[in-house]
User: What shape does this take?
Amino acid sequence: MFKYFKNDLPASIVVFFVALPLCLGIALASGAPLFSGLIAGIIGGIVVGGLSGSKVGVSGPAAGLAAIVLTAIGALGGYENFLVAVVLGGIIQILFGVLKAGVIGYYFPSSVIKGMLTGIGIIIILKQIPHFFGYDAEPEGADSFIEISGENTFSAILNIVDNITIGSMIIGIIGLAIILLWDKVLSKKGKFFQVIQGPLVAVVIGIVYFSITSGMEVFGIFSQHLVSVPIPEDTTSFLNQFSFPNFNAITNPDVWVTAFTIALVASLETLLCVEATDKIDPHKNVTPTNRELLAQGTGNILSGLVGGLPITQVIVRSSANIQSGGRTKLSAILHGILLLISVILIPKLLNMIPLSVLAAILLVVGYKLAKPGLFKQMYDLGWKQFIPFTVTVLGIVFIDLLYGIGLGLAVGIVVILLKSYQNSHFLHIEDKSNGKHKIKMTLAEEVTFFNKGAILKELDNLPENTYLELDLIKTRYLDHDIIEILEDFAFKAKERNIDIKLVSKRGVVENPSSFIEFFKTRPKSNLSLN
Assistant: This one.
């Protein structure tokens, strides 16, 4: 694990700076104590990072669960009752892992996964633009189109003009320039610039700028535009920030409903993130999904026991890790350790970091996820890839992550059904022979009930006085629904003067009286029936 320490350490620092405002922002958006987001980030890094089989995935609190958490805290009568649901959700996730439910992640089309990555990239950019200019009405980490403040993603951008903070904008621009210069030029000049990452330099410059301009009315940056980590006065007050579940609420049916909801949504987000992370990983590592569910479940149990938010693997932090050169799970673990140490030892220093600098880091992360060239690439692949991709992107941008993925998946399924309908068979039509049209219908390798409509339509459209050769030589699976259609057609064929020649590896039959009996009585070959 320490083989790539020189890659993992600088990557972990970048992930730390990305994760810090997101942990706090998601906690704020969830209506939970700010410290709960940090707890989830720490456990997601150290515990889940250590147990996970993913080399580059990073876990922590997720924006996709914020609305669920916000509603559940009120419905369950307090945060301590909600923590019981987090613990139970973790147990359910472990059960999912034991039952090998991780295989679900492999059933999402590539077009939807790419759409998810692109959509998240776009939403990161759109959500960070206001923070970049010092308009911090919305918490960091929010991803829904409708914001807590009552604005939406685009109205917040339009309102920047009246809410620009000069100091935040200046250091945001400086930070972005440093990151781009480091990424495009300096990182190629020597090992020093590879070990010391541009985002770290940008954050340091941001702290220096805040210190120099502190108190200036125009160029200064005020507290509402800075990171806001809770600062304990002593050890006792630090320990008092932890919350513990009220297990007396375990008999409340609503707690169990919330627990199952958390387990289901967190598992789905994790599996999607695993698929996406493996796809953008330049080293093409493959994450064992069932082990990931076990790791996430363990993390959520521990997080719930000490007052943390629910945890999932998160694409923003994972992609930042990959983009920064992270190679092993050590990067995720180190980012969790950095969160823990910094919250205990240097919270005052963290609270000197301008949010606009962290927004600059996230803008670069977002752009790398949503490069414009990807749209052309998907378009060139054809409409079957482009439409689910586009629907996923639009759903994520205009609703939220889970709805966007759901819409993209629904469109992807429709595309599959449509192509299955079209590709169930093909016809070869010859000239009339002995006064009859000669038509050969060849069925596909696998013919299921999805193909009923297409085959039924073709059979009904056959003209009278037809000689139909039905070729099943290459058909390996024939659904019973299709056999019933053929059975009904054989009856109608006599009335329309249609002769049928059935060709299969079970034999050749002229005008079979019963397709059902034919497939029952003939010796089996390569054709399997439902």
User: Anything to note?
Assistant: The first helix runs from residue 5 to 29. The chain has a mean pLDDT of 89.
